[in-house]
Amino acid sequence: MVKICCIGAGYVGGPTMAVIALKCPSVEVAVVDISVARITAWNSDVLPIYEPGLDEVVKQCRGKNLFFSTDVEKHVSEADIIFVSVNTPTKTRGLGAGKAADLTYWESAARMIADVSKSDKIVVEKSTVPVKTAEAIERILTHNSKGINYQILSNPEFLAEGTAIQDLFRPDRVLIGGRETTEGQKAIQALKAVYAHWVPEERIICTNLWSAELSKLAANAFLAQRISSVNAMSALCEATGADVSQVSHAVGKDTRIGPKFLNASVGFGGSCFQKDILNLVYICECNGLTEVANYWKQVIKVNDYQKNRFVNRIVSSMFNTISGKKIAVLGFAFKKDTGDTRETPAIDVCNGLLGDKARLSIYDPEVTADQIQRDLSMKKFDWDHPLHLQPMSPTSMKQVSVVWDAYEAAKDAHGLCIITEWDEFKKLDYKRIFDSMQKPAFVFDGRNIVNAEKLREIGFIVYSIGKPL
Ligand code: UPG
């Protein structure tokens, strides 16, 4: 029986291992983490992350061939294949601060593996890491190897939050990078055999280590670039009377471009895009490729511009002052079907509105009040794209309330802004909302999900992204 151990029970490690366990009954999978609270949650009825379909998968395998444990050393030493899925946040100080990935957790995982291993291991990079990380990891592992053979593979994750289980069941591709030696190729085949339980062979791409590492950063950079491109167009649409939905539909019909990731929005968020692009920028700079670095940096700058533009539009359309006015904020997560708020555009938008002294009433179906308060009081790290938006001071904390219902949020509000595209926001009773709001009642749709025409018939003044008024 092949034994797999995954270090890190987060958004990637948890769902990925659960699906491997489900699809490979002959493989024993242990997910380990030093956080007792997190492992306890994975072993309970309330999993630590919200992801459609995840509950069922975990229920089917937990206790059979899927285990969650804090006994990191035992499971690592017993495993044949070790996935490392620890987080790699952006460095906040020192060399490369604001751009480079902080590999502290990775390095300690590698040292621990080297300490406890007694047999040969395949170590798989699952979390996104800068190109050439495998080389450093290899050095740490083999430094004191006691004759143990380590093979490093890069197997980046392409799942998106909210659709993780579907993405894992039917991936566009699985990417496995390894050394071009006989042992390296053998390791690739061993991991390939795991995925081959459910992924068609032609979808499993095998490359060298550096291609696999870089492909992950490249894929995220290309996706984010599409959003920044369409968002840049949305500004031009607003200035000219073009409609960004019509433009992106027309552009996306060109099969060479395709329709995906062309939805204009208040801006992209999430733990990956910004971080990975910053990483790419840093790697380019380290290699003396200033123009290339600046090119990718611009993708992030346009994203910051889009968030600022949204705030400015709210302020200017509400007669240049929102001071003391109540604004309902619908949605706080970085996208629908997740409770994740990392890098969500909601943080910058809310801080921008608070900076202009608005009172906010925030509702998100999956984000807790605690989380929202924490996010809004967090200091945002400025690299060289300083936003005008400052974190909340204790006084502005008082300007925020978090409520558990969209109607409650909208009551007596002057304006309503939609930040996350939750399906339930499409189906709200907008007549009821209009009746409960101050007049004139404004709607700022940061996701283009409401039927603006219908809302205007009710009496709302509606602003969408990149659409004529
Ligand atoms: N977004 C838009 N317009 C679009 C598509 C997305 O504004 O047309 C926004 C979306 O709302 C979100 C952000 O872009 O704020 C990112 O969305 P998405 O890519 O769906 O979510 P993630 O879960 O962050 O997944 C990305 C990659 C995935 C990768 C992961 C971690 O899609 O392949 O594994 O990041 O690296």
Quick structural summary:
The chain is an alpha/beta fold. It has 18 helices and 14 strands. It is globular, with a radius of gyration of 24 Å.
Describe it for me?
The chain is an alpha/beta fold. It has two domains: 2-199, Rossmann fold (3-Layer(aba) Sandwich); 241-464, Rossmann fold, CATH 3.40.50. 43% of the residues lie in helices and 14% in strands. The protein has 18 helices and 14 strands. A six-stranded parallel sheet has the order 3-2-1-4-5-6, with helices on both faces. Strand 5, helix 6 and strand 6 (150-154) form a beta-alpha-beta unit. Helix 5 (104-116) runs parallel beside helix 6, helix 9 (209-240) runs parallel beside helix 12 (290-317) and helix 12 crosses helix 13. The longest helix has 32 residues, at 209-240. Residues 382-389 have low confidence and may be disordered. Residues 128, 157-161, 220, 223, 227, 261-263, 265, 268-270, 272-273, 334-335 line the site of uridine-5'-diphosphate-glucose. Uridine-5'-diphosphate-glucose binds at residues 128, 157-161, 220, 223, 227, 261-263, 265, 268-270, 272-273, 334-335.
